[in-house]
């Protein structure tokens, strides 16, 4: 595909969000905020044991409470699909998906076991407290440490997730022979996504068997096919519309249980129902699995790697094998002839973990990049230099070339901006008052993917353009970049372009995730606009006495509501006149973007980063502050430097949370998370974040996607935790391999 | 009195909301947040935790920032409430803080944004944020999971600078 020859006015320039006004005035409506005249409110009751059977569920008092319409449990649940495969969704892992209110079995603590539906929210909430439940509890296991001996390689692989590559060379032998060795065990705590908007579904009962569903998710089509499959409905009877998503970070990839419950209640009661989860209940579904890793690196005295071994064991549920890419990154980032990477799962009595921002990568690279730092210390080679000495121009996991890789430039530019050359390699060598100062760095990588996606472009004679795609904007800026691409295709102002997203009536898109949306939906919009341009141009040439009659499409530009000869703008046809000549008042095209099969066979695509961090550690209190961050990112073409920077800053903030704060703590006796609220599950607040600089390194890539975009949603978090851990080591001399790195571990 | 909080008894309540006097009837356990969102349809004020831990529900209550989820509506008889919907000027002109948030890309998903903006407007009024460190400290009651903090600080700095002129 040839790039659009039109001038890029908006693409590549910093532009404010087109949905900004809606978001700063409170006009943006999220899923739990749609209403209907007959709206009823559902409130969820959750299990208090981790495993066992419900022996008695007494709903009489709740049913008798004023305003209560119904209490749904497994005993009176309306008929739904029988087979577990009917509950599968686009991104689910192998296994048997959780089925809410299916039977009397409890498979995790916090499992939804009843839904109280009432005329008002307060009535439903009050009555939910009156539901009495008895259990026959069974012995459970939620501690990964007790199940590691039984860890197994997942027999069925999850679609889209590369299993570790086959071992190359002899990693164990090379490690035994290596003159320099480092090895360590790494631990990462459970984390919960905690988007600010709790999961919520409003089902508007439209009558005639039609449902209009507003559901917090990252893919309306995924939610629609789930509902249709579970409840045996035609897709034409279920429309899912989610214009705004109050943060996803992966928590909205799979349908969550409030969607099932709200639809079930609406179908049964034949009226509109809303179910909103509480913050507590946000800890009763998806999370990032806690993960144990062992890394062993063998090297020559000059730092050249001779052996890489990285082994991971992650928790999963009893009923599904969630998988993510944890260990592969080491084999992709570095040149090494002897590599052994393994990834195993262990079954726990928990809900199934799921994708959380850059699933797998920050866990794996926390271990790899901490070990590389350790190797730098052991060999006396500078941390940046040791990465350059092991640099690879080929993805040795796949034996393929990269579509592009400007990581070398990231190291160089990042180091320069940070002032890395002034670093004294000696730990504990910098101090100010009672604070020890440390500088650390790490590399980051994330797969640059493109997914089959369709978009529609509609141009009207008044020079207004609408672009439409079913994908979501979860805060990433999708509305804005698609508007930019559409505006540039026709030389329009951004105000003349409307972007529609998050509606199952719009052209196909997979779930919004994996950093693939900009490349995929962006390309689809560009293709659709090109198709409209061609149609319009044909009409323009047909206009009587058209000055474009003998001109080819590649010789014209679209600007100011006209099609003009690029070399002689005085020769032009107005959009309105071209449409008139064609006897139309609107032109529309829908196109589908797909990744190039040939390029996929030949190349692998990655976004890269080099992140540099300064921490200050209070020597007496052990408190760690991240005071300065420079992240140099190579991500192909940057469509909008303003929103792009925000994406990376957000990822870095997540990395700070992961490294220092975020930890969902299970009580293994109860098999239950204890700190299920924002007061006790710490996420970074404003005072935790300062001095973040993001640099985009030039990277021209024509293979990764037709528009040269790699995606930015994940890369910010990937190397951050490792860089912070390395900076803490530099500050204190203490190597902490257990995230989050809390005060007790710094002082301990 | 029933022994559970699901009764339908309501109490009268007079409030001024975004400049408009409202005569309401509310159940005694209704929070100001639920009153705004469910009864008055002012969905710009967000519910993020319902426990006063996230700041998404921040409104201006008699000119001061408050977590609407922690306020029982009935105890605020006669109060003046300004929500995000009440900040813009006549004709929809954005409040300087709203405009600064857009310009500095001080949000992503937008869910915490109304609370951040109400909090920031009150902070400027309070007059105790002069440096970026002070802004960060006094804005730490408003969680932004997207991590837009540096841009939020930049937006507030801009408004402070404009006011100083």
What tags apply to this protein structure?
heterodimer; A: 748 residues; Aldehyde Oxidoreductase, domain 3; Aldehyde Oxidoreductase, domain 4; 3 domains; 32 strands; 25% helix; globular; B: 165 residues; alpha+beta; Ubiquitin-like (UB roll); 5 helices; disordered N terminus
Proper CATH architecture of the largest domain in chain B = Roll
Question: In CATH's first tier, which class of the largest domain in chain B applies?
Answer: Alpha Beta
Spatial arrangement of strands, main beta sheet of chain A: 3-5-1-11-8-9-10
Q: What structural class should be given to the helix and strand makeup of chain B?
A: alpha+beta
CATH class of the largest domain in chain A: Alpha Beta
**Helix proportion of chain A:** 25-40%
Rg of chain B, rounded, reads 17 Å
Work out the largest interface and the residue count of each chain: A-B, 72 and 68 residues
Mean pLDDT over all positions of chain B: 94
Name the quaternary structure: heterodimer
| CA(first)-CA(last) distance of chain B | 58 Å
Count of individual domains of chain A = 3
The N- to C-terminal Cα distance of chain A equals 58 Å
Report helical residue fraction of chain B.
Answer: 25-40%
CATH fold naming of the largest domain in chain A: Aldehyde Oxidoreductase, domain 4
Main pleated-sheet profile of chain B: 5 strands, mixed
Strands of chain A, total number: 32
Shape of chain B: globular
Order of helices and strands of chain B: EEHEEEHHHH
> Using DSSP, what is the number of strands of chain B?
5
């Amino acid at each position: 595909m040839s790039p659009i020859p039109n001038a890029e006015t908006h693409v590549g320039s910093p532009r404010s969000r087109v949905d900004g006004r809606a978001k700063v005035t409170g006009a943006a409506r999220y899923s739990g905020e749609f209403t209907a005249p007959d709206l009823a409110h559902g409130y969820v009751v959750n299990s208090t044991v981790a495993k066992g059977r419900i022996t008695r569920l007494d709903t009489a008092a709740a049913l008798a409470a004023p305003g209560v319409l119904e209490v749904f449990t497994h005993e009176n649940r309306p008929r739904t699909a029988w087979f577990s495969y009917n509950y599968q969704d686009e991104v689910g892992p192998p296994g048997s998906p959780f089925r809410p209110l299916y039977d009397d079995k409890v498979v995790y603590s916090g499992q939804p076991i009843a839904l109280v539906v009432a005329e008002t929210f307060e009535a439903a909430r009050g009555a939910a407290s009156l539901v009495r439940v008895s259990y026959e509890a069974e012995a459970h296991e939620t501690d990964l440490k007790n199940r590691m001996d039984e860890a197994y390689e997942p027999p069925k692989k999850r679609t889209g997730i590369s299993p570790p590559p086959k071992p190359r060379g002899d990693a164990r032998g090379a490690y035994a022979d290596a003159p320099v060795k480092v090895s360590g065990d790494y631990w990462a705590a459970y984390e919960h996504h905690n988007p600010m908007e709790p999961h919520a579904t409003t089902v508007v009962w439209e009558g005639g068997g039609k449902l209009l569903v507003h559901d917090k998710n990252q893919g309306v089509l995924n939610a629609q096919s789930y509902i249709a499959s579970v409840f045996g409905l035609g897709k034409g009877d279920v429309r899912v519309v989610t214009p705004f998503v109050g943060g996803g970070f992966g928590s909205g990839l799979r349908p969550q249980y409030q969607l099932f419950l709200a639809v079930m209640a609406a179908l049964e009661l034949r009226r509109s129902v809303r179910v909103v989860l509480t913050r507590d209940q946000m800890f009763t579904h998806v999370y990032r699995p806690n993960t144990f890793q062992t890394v062993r690196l063998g090297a020559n005295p000059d730092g050249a790697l001779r052996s890489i071994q990285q082994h991971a064991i992650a928790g999963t549920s009893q009923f599904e094998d969630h998988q993510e890419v944890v260990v592969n990154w080491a084999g992709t980032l570095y040149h090494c002839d002897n590599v052994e990477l393994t990834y195993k799962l262990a079954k726990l009595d928990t809900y199934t973990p799921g994708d959380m921002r850059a699933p797998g990568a920050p866990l794996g690279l926390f271990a790899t990049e901490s070990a590389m730092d350790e190797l730098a210390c052991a060999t006396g080679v500078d941390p940046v230099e040791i990465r350059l000495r092991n640099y690879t121009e080929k993805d040795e996991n796949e034996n393929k070339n990269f579509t592009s890789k400007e990581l070398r430039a990231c190291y160089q530019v990042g180091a320069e901006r940070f002032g890395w050359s002034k670093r004294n390699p000696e730990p504990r060598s910098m101090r100010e008052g009672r604070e020890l100062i440390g500088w650390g760095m790490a590399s980051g990588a994330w797969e640059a993917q493109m997914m089959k996606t369709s978009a529609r472009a509609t141009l009207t004679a008044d020079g207004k353009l609408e672009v439409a795609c079913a994908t979501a904007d979860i805060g990433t800026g999708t509305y804005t970049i698609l508007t930019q691409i559409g505006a540039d295709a026709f030389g329009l102002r951004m105000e003349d372009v409307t972007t529609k997203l998050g509606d199952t009536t719009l052209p196909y898109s997979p779930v919004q995730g994996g950093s693939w949306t900009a490349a995929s939906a962006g390309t689809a919009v560009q293709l659709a606009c090109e198709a409209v341009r061609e149609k319009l141009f044909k009409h323009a040439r047909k206009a009587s006495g058209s000055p474009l009659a003998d001109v080819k499409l590649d010789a014209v530009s679209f600007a100011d509501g006209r099609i003009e000869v690029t070399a002689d703008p005085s020769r032009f046809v107005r959009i309105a006149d071209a449409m008139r000549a064609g006897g139309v008042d609107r032109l529309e095209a829908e196109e589908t973007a797909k990744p190039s099969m040939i390029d996929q066979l030949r190349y692998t695509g990655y976004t890269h980063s080099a992140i540099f961090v300064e921490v200050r550690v209070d020597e007496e209190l052990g408190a760690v502050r991240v005071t300065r961050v420079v992240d140099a990112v190579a991500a192909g073409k940057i469509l909008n430097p303003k929103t792009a920077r925000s994406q990376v800053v957000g990822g870095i903030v997540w990395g700070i949370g992961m490294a220092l704060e975020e930890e969902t703590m299970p009580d293994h006796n109860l098999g239950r998370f204890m700190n299920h609220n924002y007061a006790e599950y710490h996420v970074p607040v404003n005072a935790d974040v300062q001095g973040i600089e993001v640099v985009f390194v030039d990277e021209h890539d024509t293979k990764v996607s037709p528009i040269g975009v790699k995606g930015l949603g994940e890369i910010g978090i990937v190397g951050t935790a490792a860089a912070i851990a390395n900076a803490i080591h530099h500050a204190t001399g203490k190597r902490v391999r257990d995230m989050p790195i809390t005060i007790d571990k710094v002082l301990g | 009195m029933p022994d559970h909080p699901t009764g339908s008894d309501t109490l009268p309540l007079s409030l001024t909301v975004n400049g408009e006097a409202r005569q309401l009837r509310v159940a005694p356990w209704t929070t100001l947040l639920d009153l705004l969102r469910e009864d008055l349809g002012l969905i710009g004020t967000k519910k993020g935790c319902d426990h006063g831990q996230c700041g998404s529900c921040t409104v201006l209550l008699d000119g001061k920032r408050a977590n609407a989820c922690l306020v029982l509506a009935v105890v605020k008889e006669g109060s003046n409430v300004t929500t995000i919907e009440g900040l813009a000027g006549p004709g929809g002109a954005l409040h300087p803080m709203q405009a600064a948030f857009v310009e500095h890309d001080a949000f992503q998903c937008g869910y915490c944004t109304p609370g951040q903006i109400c909090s920031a407007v009150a902070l400027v009024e309070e007059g105790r944020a002069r440096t970026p460190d002070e802004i960060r400290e006094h804005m730490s009651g408003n969680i932004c999971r997207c991590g837009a903090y540096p841009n939020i600080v930049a937006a507030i700095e801009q408004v402070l600078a404009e006011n100083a002129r």
